[in-house]
Amino acid sequence: MSPPPPPLGRGRKRAAQAFDAALDDAELVAARASLNQGRWTAVRALLAATGDDWDRRGHRVTVLAQESAALAWARDWQLAEPESADAAVLLGCAAVQRALKGKERPERARDACNAAAALAPADPTPWLGLLVLERSLGTEDDVVQLFDEVRHRYPDHHHAHHLMVARLAERRAEAGQDPLHEVYDFANWAAEQAPADSPLAILPVVAHAERYRVLATVGSEPADPVASGHWVGRRARQVMKAAFDWWLEWERDDHPRRFVDLNFLAHAKFCEGRGAEAAALFHRIGEHATPVPWSYPDRDPYKAFRAARDSALGTV
Predict the structure, then answer these.
(1) Alpha-carbon distance 265 to 205, whole Å?
(2) Which residues does 239 contact at the CB level (< 8 Å), separation at least 6?
(3) What is the DSSP string of 16-70?
(4) Nearest-CA neighbor of 23 among 247, 254, 258?
(5) ∠ at Cα 106 (101, 111), nearest 5°?
(6) CA-CA distance, 105 to 34, in Å (whole number)?
(7) Residue 13, Cβ neighbours under 10 Å: how many?
(8) What is the SS3 assignment for 2?
(9) Of 138, 161, 166, 231, which has the highest C-beta tally within 10 A?
């Protein structure tokens, strides 16, 4: 007799464990565990070693800031080392995460990020924290201004460009499938102005997924992305081919957020019906799935990822 199915609670717990924002950064995972045990010195060492690798610094600080204990331990760290820019940046980004959850006043998060920016004028990370906040709470002018602050310090900032694309995609939801929508222009511009080996080459694919999210949310596209046809038009196919060709030539094993790009690209290739290309990407992704874009528009990302991967790999 086959065993009974697991209780619903266990299934949800498994799904929650399927995604780790740290991705494959083993040093970050170790520092995060130490932080949750009250040992912020491991985080200090990690951020000191990260230096001005801005994409990696932004990734690490953002992941650490998501921990429930991050704000309290960052305050302890700042009390011990008041001049530490790293402590201030973590404090600001942790306050942002709490503000987004309604557990901190947004004004306090803004003040904390601005204080961190004053301690580290060249660091785009405090501005990234503010951009994360205002992408959800601020006006479009706020978002554009903060994006410019990040780009002024690091023109090719990966996370900042993704946030900007997500916000721009929400313009003119009523316009429907407009191939001239500004989110596509922005993504193409960013990809073209970046160095040849920059992962911003994947940004047009991200723009396509973010626009689908918006259209599906308002009912202009089916809730099933494969059924929508959003990825099979002539322009869409050109975008997907260019991004996949870039990946074949320039795959960046060293980029801290490469699995974010790989998930967007695998999702696009699966929705386009290019099973063999999607399978190659799923092999690269391995266990490092990301909730976005598999959750679009309102799906269980774990189930959506598993179903797409199993289909592409021929295991269904």
Answers:
(1) 7
(2) 204, 205, 208
(3) HHT--TTTT-HHHHHHHHHHHTT-THHHHHHHHHHTT-HHHHHHHHHHHHTSTTH
(4) 258
(5) 135
(6) 27
(7) 12
(8) coil
(9) 161
| Distance (Å, whole) CA 210 – CA 129 | 21
Q: Terminal CA-to-CA distance of the chain, rounded, Å?
A: 23
Residue 266 structure tokens = 């695998």
- CA dist., res. 203 & res. 239, Å (int): 10
The kind and range of the H/E element at 179 are none
Q: What is the pLDDT of residue 9?
A: 36
Rounded distance, CA 56 to CA 50, Å? 7
Phi and psi angles of residue 54, each rounded to the nearest 5 degrees, phi first:
-65, -40
Render pLDDT for 120-137 as a digit per residue (tens, 0 to 9). 999 999 999 999 999 999
pLDDT of residue 209: 97
Q: Are 202 and 245 in contact (CB under 8 A)?
A: no
Q: Which stretches in the chain have pLDDT values below 70?
A: 1-17, 315-316
- Asked if residues 210 and 221 have their Cβ atoms less than 8 Å apart, the reply is no
Mean of the per-residue pLDDT values of the chain: 92
Give, in degrees to the nearest 5, the angle at Cα 233 between 229 and 235: 140
Pair of tokens at residue 160: 């900042």
Tokens standing for 304?
A: 């959506």
pLDDT at 174: 80
